[in-house]
Amino acid sequence: MSEVPSDLKYTRAHEWLRLEDDSVVTIGITDHAQAQLGDLVFVEVPETGSSLGAGDAAAVVESVKAASDVYAPVAGEVVGANEQLDESPELVNNDPFGEGWIYKLRVENPAALDELMSAADYEAFAESEED
Amino acid sequence: MPFIPHTETDVRSMLDAIGVEDIDGLFDEIAGGLRAGELEGVPEGMPEMAVNRLMERRAAQEGRPLCFLGAGAYPHHIPQAIWQLTTRGEFYSAYTPYQAEASQGTLQVTYEFQSMMAELTGMEVSNASLYDGGSALAEAILMAVRGNRKAKSKRVIVPRAVHPHYRDATRTIVRNQGIELVEADFDRSTGTTPLEQLDAALGDEAVAAVVIPQPNFFGRLEDVDALTDRAHECGAQVIAVANPTALALLSPPGQWGAKGVDIVVGEGQPLGIPLSAGGPYVGFLCTRKNLARQMPGRVVGRTVDAEGNTGYVMTLRAREQDIRRSKATSNICTNQGLMVTAATLYMSIMGPEGFERVARHCHANARALRDELCAIDGVSAAFDGPFFHEFVLRIDGRPVTDVLGDLAGEDILGGLALEPYYDDLGDAMLVCATELHGEDERRAFAEALARAVA
C-alpha cells in the first residue's frame, strides 16, 4: 500500500492538501496517484496570481502516455507554484508529499476544507477504487 | 499488420446483441434531411473496363496545360524515385499502428521528416504533420493563444497578404473559440505589409500573436526582421507562414529579427507532392522547445534499446484526443503520413544543394518571366520590390479574366485573377514560375499573352 500521511487532507481526485497557515494550502498529488500515472515527464503548474474556482483544472501532470488534470479542491488564488518541476518532474514520483508539491492556494473560504477527506477516509476510498 | 474484416456472421451477431435490424439502422440517429443519400449522376457500379474508358476520356479533356498558376500549390519536378518508394507496401498507409514502435520504418521516416523541417525552418521541434498549410495556420494560432499565458489575449494579427484560403480556413476553425482575427493591410505600391500597418492593427490592446507570411501571397518578400521584432516588443508571439522551397534560399524563420519566430507553418506540397487538383497535401508546423507541449500532434524521437541499438519511439503524444479528449491540443495525430514520406524522400533525394538549386531556378525563371511579360505593351508589374517565384501583373485594356480565358484556349494556365479575393486591388493577376518554366515555356506564355492583350 502506498504512503498516506495522516496530517494531510485528501480529495477524490487523488490530490493532497497541507494547511500552511490559516488560509494557505499546499497541494500535490498522492503517492497512489503518482504510482498509477508512472514516470512523469512534464508538469504544467498554474500561474501565480490566477484565481481558481472549486473543481477548476489547475495543473497538468503528464506521463509518457497520459496527461491528467490536477484540480483545485476549493476556490482560491494561486500564491505559489513549484517551478522546480519544470526541470525535474520526477520529484512528483520520488517525493510526492514533499519536494514534489505542485502549487499553493490562498483559500477563499477555509471552512470548505472541512469537507475534504482525512487520511483514513482516503485510504479506504483509494482501496475501494482498486476493486 | 493484417486487416481482417468481419464476416457476415460476425456482423449479424453484433447487430443481434444490440438489437439493431441492419447496418443502416445504426444511423437512425441522423435525421433524414441531414443524410447524403444517393449521389446524383454516380452509377451504382461499373465494370473495370468501362471505368478505365470513362476516366481516360475525362483525363483527355483536362489536357496537359502549361501551368503558370501557383497561389499556394506549385508545379515542380518530382523525381520518379519518390513515388516509386512512397507507394511501396511498407509505407503505403497514412497510419501508425496502435503499438507505434512495431513500425520502426514508419517512425524513422517521421523522425527524418521532423529533423529536416526543423533544420529548414531553423526551429527546435517539428511535429509529424498537419492536413495542409491553411489548417496548419489555424492550429498555430490556437497554439499561440494557448501558449501565450502572459498576454492572456485572444487577439491575433493576420495580414491581408496571407493566402486568402488560409485566412478563410483559420476563421472557420478559430472563430468559435473566442479568438479575434485582426487584419493588417498591405501597401498598394509594394504589395507588402509595412510596419505602420502592423502598428495600426496592434493598437493599444494586448495581442497574442502576429502572423508573418514569407513570401506573401503576392510572391513578395516581407521585411520579416522588422515585423518579427515589433511583434515581440508588443509581447506577441510570431507565427511565420513560409514556403518551404523559398526557405532553401531565404533566412530561416528561426533567425528572423533578434529572437527568431515562435512558430513556423506552411504547405508541404512543393516537396514532391503532385498538384492533383488540390490534395491530399501536407501541412508542417515547427516551434521552439518550450512550446512543444502546446503543439498539436505528435513527435517521434530516436533512442537506444537495452542493447544499445538505435530505435525510434513515440516521444510526445500524451495530449492527443484519444488521451485528453476535450482538452486535447487538437484532433491531429498521425495525419498525412504518406505525404510526409514523399516530402522526406524529396528532401533527401534533392539534398541541401539540390534543393537550393531548385529554389534558385524558380527565382531566376520568375524574374525572367516577369521581365519578358512586362516587355509586352499593356502589361506591367503591380508591385515593386523583391519576390520569390510569383508576381502580380496588371493588364491595360482587357479584363484579366478574358485574358486568362484566351490563354486557357491555348492550353496555358496563365495565373490567378485576384479581384475575387482582393476587390480593392482592382484587376490584376498572380503569376508563378518554377524550375519547370525554362526559356521555351516562358516564350510560349509570352507569345500567347501578347496575342491575348493585342
Please give the structural blueprint.
The complex is a heterodimer of chains A (131) and B (454).
Chain A lengths: L8 E2 L4 E5 L4 E6 L1 H7 L2 E5 L6 E2 L4 E7 L3 E5 L4 E6 L2 H4 L2 H5 L8 E5 L11 H12 L1
Antiparallel strand pairs in A: 1-2, 2-3, 3-9, 4-6, 5-8, 6-7, 8-9
Chain B lengths: L7 H11 L29 H15 L3 E2 L12 H7 L17 H18 L3 E2 L6 H15 L7 E5 L4 H11 L5 E5 L10 H8 L6 E6 L9 H10 L3 E6 L1 H4 L15 E5 L15 E5 L11 E6 L5 E7 L4 H4 L12 H38 L4 E3 L8 E6 L4 H10 L2 E2 L2 E2 L11 E4 L6 H15 L1
Parallel strand pairs in B: 1-13, 3-4, 3-5, 5-6, 6-7
Antiparallel strand pairs in B: 2-8, 7-8, 9-10, 11-12, 12-15, 14-15
Helix pairs in contact in B: 3-11, 4-11, 5-6, 7-8, 11-13, 12-13
Q: Which characteristics define this entry?
A:
heterodimer, A: 131 residues, alpha+beta, OB fold (Dihydrolipoamide Acetyltransferase, E2P), six-stranded antiparallel β-sheet, three-stranded antiparallel β-sheet, 4 helices, 9 strands, B: 454 residues, alpha/beta, seven-stranded mixed β-sheet, four-stranded antiparallel β-sheet, 13 helices, 37% helix, globular
